[in-house]
Amino acid sequence: MTAIACLKVFVGEDPAETERNAPLIAKIAGDYLKGAWLAPRRHGLVAPFSFVLADPRATRLDARELQALARALQHKLFGDDDDGEIVMLMFEGDQHEVMRFAGLPPRQLSLLLAGEEDASLAGRVCRITPRDVRSVMPFGGPIAGVPTMEALARLCPRPPPARVAWRGVYHAGRELFVGNVGVWREAGLAGRPYEIYVDGQRQQHDLAILKSAIAAIGPNSGVTYLPIGFSSALKPSLRAELEACLRTLPRDLRGRLAAGVYGVPRAPSFVALGQMKAFLEPYFSRVDLRISDPAFKVDDLAPGLAASVTFTPEGEVEASRIAAIGRFLKDGPAYRRRQVWQGVSDLRSPRELLAALDQGAPFVSGPMVTDLLEAPVNVTPYAKGQLPLYGWTAEAAA
To answer: Which domain of life is it from (predicted)?
Structure first.
């Protein structure tokens, strides 16, 4: 059984103070969890100041282990002064209750912060500060995990090997997962958008995904987007090896395969696009151009050349990424005139996802849409408000 919990972070008991420190809290907590909450554990940001934590090796999470995060936040925000205090609430229960806790209103949270039980919650609550850890629900209950943090620390799991993983593609209007994007995952590391691979590794990753994808595609997994470098489809030195791999794709799957062509310039030549299309058409039923320039010249595309254009925002600054998403989606009327779908990928934060949805992105993908999945997600309805879909959720639904 996988232990699942929601961790909420507060600066004292004043929500306004927490809001003022939002960027710093998100960065420190995110960096801590990336370094401490390692595979096979999983974690994800589900709302401001709210993280979902899961450990498949445990039946109860150890609240004491998270005190190190409280101390790190305390030091970064207040130094050695006593001007304020970090308080964290860890709620543990089944998946439905955990996600409900993530959206709990301030009034109920205030009662829990004050140490009062809440009969509407079906689960366990621990209150964690830099100075102490105690159980609020049940009052005086256990704070140690099963197994304990000491026992888990003695386990030394080998890092997972390099392999193909998947991100679900979500249709926002229909609130439906419609397909999956193949992603290369390095040994022991999370996946990254294939647009930002180091140049010398792109072709090897593309071929590995192509070779592994067929066995993973199920009867209900929708459209499968496989990465193809724009230059790989044009340069003779790269095309030969790629074409040999493409010829192994089963012809009866062509209708469910899409080429996710990355590395596309802002204004590609008509001739280059035509050559790319002719090369890929025997193997893929559609082409998705994956771009990083929000001002991509969609009006220059020949009719029928691409079914969709997917934008991946660059950089690490959330405000800049959101502005770029807005710039791309502002051209929605032009895309509709050309009968080309728009998509936004690599959505990393709740604000980025909200920006894409509020501005009418038809298709979205990335860490805030699905976890990095070991198998493609099936075509299935899924409410926007429940995103992201985590790996344990997908496994339960399979």
So the answer is: Bacteria
